[in-house]
Amino acid sequence: MIVRVVRRRRAIAMVIAIALLLLLSLISAIVVRQSIAMLGATARQLSHLQAEHLATAAADRASLLREADPVFAGDTWKPTTFDDEQSRAYRLQATTAINVDDRGAPQIQITIVRETASGPVTLLSVQRRVIVRTKPADSENPSDDKTDAPVESPPPESTPSESSASDSSTRASY
């Protein structure tokens, strides 16, 4: 009789121990799954922020190139970036295309692409306004060149031989 009671207590203790181990393993599996999901979300957010930074750099670069050459229509730029997880540098492809909308304002389409083993992956595709700064012709003080107002490029139908009245109508600040 005493042997049966001891066996019963041992069996109950064993069942409780197994149930606690199952519960503990379930909790640890949930924590590990959430940690992996958070790591993936952080990596996606980092990738998006990096793409935003490159898009801003591409827009600035396109604005400067457009300022130097008014007929600049876009290019492909391959900046080198660094991957902290894999401790290696890799190249992204920043493609810029400048389009003039119906109001004559230049818009830039920026696409950031990363080459992977499975093919190209588009990280970001945005459209931003291009600000083109021009120097005024009557500027006597060289320090005034830094405070020029942004202007839109003239509409395609205007020619350089037109009067200055049409030139003043195309100048507008953003």
From TrEMBL:
Record's compositionally biased regions (Basic and acidic residues): 135-149
Region (Disordered), start-end ranges: 133-174
Low complexity composition-biased segments: 159-174
Protein name as annotated: Uncharacterized protein
Organism whose genome encodes this protein: Pirellula staleyi (strain ATCC 27377 / DSM 6068 / ICPB 4128) (Pirella staleyi)
